[in-house]
Amino acid sequence: HFTGGLVIAWIGYAFFHKDFARISKFKQLIILVSFTAMVGVFWEFAEYLSGAYLQDATSPLLSTIYRYFHGGGLRDTLLDLGFDMLGSFLFYFWIKDRD
Questions:
Q1: What is the spatial distance between Cα 34 and Cα 36, in angstroms, rounded to a whole number?
Q2: CA–CA dist 52, 41 (Å, integer)
């Protein structure tokens, strides 16, 4: 999730890059971390829903989705989201002085 947070922040930066020149560094940080957290929350929902509904899937496609998306409990979710955001923080501090 740390690497995923880096990649999602990079994608967010590429998407919002032209607008970043007009806003403060703090707002840039908030946008990147929020964008990364939003994607991370969607991912965690996918993990939860696959665990809830695909655990007993007999279809090869659905069982493959379950294998890659099912997750742990609350601790796993919180750690995943924390590492997502940590990756976005690192990305921000890597690029913050480039603009």
A1: 5
A2: 16
Q: How far apart are CA 93 and CA 99, in angstroms?
A: 12
What is the predicted pLDDT for the residue at 36? 97
The reported pTM is 0.84
From CA 11, how far away is CA 5, in angstroms rounded? Answer: 10
Q: Are 81 and 44 in contact (CB under 8 A)?
A: yes
Q: Helix, strand, coil proportions of the chain in percent (round to 5)?
A: 80, 0, 20
Q: In this structure, what is the dihedral angle of CA atoms 72, 42, 26, 86, given to the nearest 10 degrees?
A: 30
For residue range 65-81, what is the model confidence (pLDDT) as tens digits?
888 877 778 898 999 99
* Residue 7 CA from chain centroid, whole number: 8
